[in-house]
Design brief:
It is a single chain. With 295 residues, the chain is α/β, with parallel strands linked by helices. 39% of the residues lie in helices and 20% in strands. The protein is globular, with a radius of gyration of 19 Å. Helix 5 links the parallel strand 4 and strand 5. Helix 8 packs antiparallel against helix 9. It has 9 helices and 8 strands.
């Protein structure tokens, strides 16, 4: 499971996680300033957590951001992929937080039963929507909270944008059309989950429904204007490669031809050379607390 908006990160098929890990890491690293600001906001609600759990941690980039934001906390990265958790442990060691960093391998939410004690800050970034019964999973997350513990759920926000509406090749509005296809594929992914339960995506309402209180939301921006760094440009290229590989059959011939030009390093209109490539993303975090007397 990964942190960002490429929903294939969590798909329930056989995946070569070791091969995917570098891209997942690069993506999360690019978004780390956003996660750091979110952690600073959470620290006002939960200033001294003893145990922080990142559910669906992927290769551990955000888990390590949380470890740095909460220097007295023990941090557990929970994920279903052993290869990604190996990366998480290595990252924690490199960053000097390995002595209070551990991993938990298993499918959510059942794996959380192996936690040694209740959680003070529970972070779930775009992992909940890949669980068939989101309300039941949220209830399981909430059940693991310590009295007064905080559940932070990253779901929603706005589709990221990387190019202007009119890029001078193809029909204007390419990204909006790609976004519409992504939304349809996401709906199909949810419907195809075994035992999927339809749920209105009122995340604060769902947090309240599972017995938490004080639910509120805040949106954080990642705003990387043109001209982009090499790392950010490489991320955008990787995103369009993902669109080509995973959504290509759902795009019309004109848009597919435009995407191919954008991915051609020899084309001066491609993502490799364009001066107008940017990254603008908005991630929304919904938080609520457990009752102080719930244990």
């Amino acid at each position: 499971m990964g942190h960002h908006h490429n929903h294939e990160h969590h798909d329930h098929g056989d995946r070569d996680w070791a091969a995917m890990a570098p891209r997942l890491e690069a993506e999360a690293e690019l978004f780390s300033p956003l996660y750091a600001r979110a952690a600073a906001w959470l620290s006002k609600r939960q200033p001294h957590p003893g145990l922080v759990v990142d559910a669906g941690s992927g290769p551990g980039v955000v888990a390590c951001v949380l470890a740095e934001a909460f220097p007295a906390a023990r941090v557990v990265a929970a994920d279903g992929s052993g290869p990604l958790l190996e990366r998480a442990r290595s990252r924690a060691e490199r960053l000097g937080v390995g002595d209070r960093f551990s991993t938990l391998e298993g499918e959510l939410p059942d794996a959380l039963g192996d936690l040694d004690y209740p959680v003070d800050l529970f972070w779930a970034s775009r992992s909940l929507h890949h669980l068939a019964d989101q309300r039941a999973a949220l209830a399981a997350f909430a059940e693991r909270l310590a009295p007064g513990g905080t559940l932070a759920l990253l779901e929603g926000g706005l589709p990221a944008r990387y190019l202007p509406r009119d890029i001078g090749i193809g029909r204007p509005g390419l990204q909006a059309r790609i976004g519409a296809v992504e939304a349809e594929r996401f709906t199909a992914m949810r419907a195809e989950l075994p035992g999927a339960v339809a749920e209105t995506e009122d995340w604060p309402g769902l947090l309240a429904a599972v017995g938490l209180h004080g639910a509120t939301s805040r949106t954080f921006l990642l705003d990387l204007p043109a001209p982009l760094s090499g790392e950010a440009r490489a991320f955008v290229v990787a995103m369009f490669q993902h669109y080509r590989e995973n959504l290509g059959e759902h795009l019309d011939a004109s848009d597919l031809a435009t995407v191919d030009r954008l991915l051609d390093p020899e084309d001066k209109a491609s993502l490799y050379h364009r001066p107008d490539v940017f990254v603008l993303a908005a991630h929304t975090i919904h938080v609520a607390e457990a009752e102080l007397g719930n244990r």
